[in-house]
Design a protein that fits this description.
Four Helix Bundle (Hemerythrin (Met), subunit A); mainly alpha
Length: 158
């Protein structure tokens, strides 16, 4: 039994590493967001503004992709492995809350990949900031429901 517990801890420890890397990407994303938010007047002719915006968009899309195609799948797999029906149901509800933010983020990215018109960027950045804040809150709840609670169970068993 102890061997099985250690194997599970090693496996879910790997999930923790994936989550940790993803949360580090989130931190980087927030830094880039803050850098953009500090610009008061966007000028399409200013190459620095354009490169900061492009870097932010790339990081944001990468973050969302890792969330959907790696982290959320790992979390759901963990919930299934623990037969955590309640956690999986809560995770599905949280995914429903997260999905609109994904669409908003992708729309923002598409808009600023296709235009040099930065007149609406300050307003759009405000919207993206609110969207990210709500998304992060739901993601954190999902990590708590589908990972942290299981890690605590494993620790209690060992």
């Amino acid at each position: 039994m102890l061997e099985n517990c250690q194997t599970l801890q090693q496996h879910w420890g790997g999930v923790s590493e994936v989550i940790d890397r993803w949360l580090e990407e989130r931190r980087e994303l927030l830094v880039k967001y803050c850098e953009l938010s500090e610009i008061n007047n966007f000028d399409g002719a200013n190459e620095d503004h354009g490169s900061k915006l492009q870097n932010f968009c790339e990081l944001m899309v990468d973050y969302v992709s890792v969330g959907h195609f790696e982290v959320f799948e790992q979390l759901a797999g963990e919930g299934k492995a623990f037969s955590d029906k309640e956690g999986l149901a809560q995770g599905a509800e949280l995914m429903e809350k997260i999905q609109p933010s994904t669409e908003f983020i992708l729309d923002f990215n598409d808009k600023y990949l296709a235009t040099d018109d930065l007149d609406a960027l300050i307003t759009d950045l405000s919207g993206i900031g609110e969207t990210l804040a709500l998304r992060f809150e739901s993601e954190d709840k999902m990590i708590e429901v589908l990972h942290s609670s299981h890690v605590r169970l494993l620790m209690a068993e060992s």
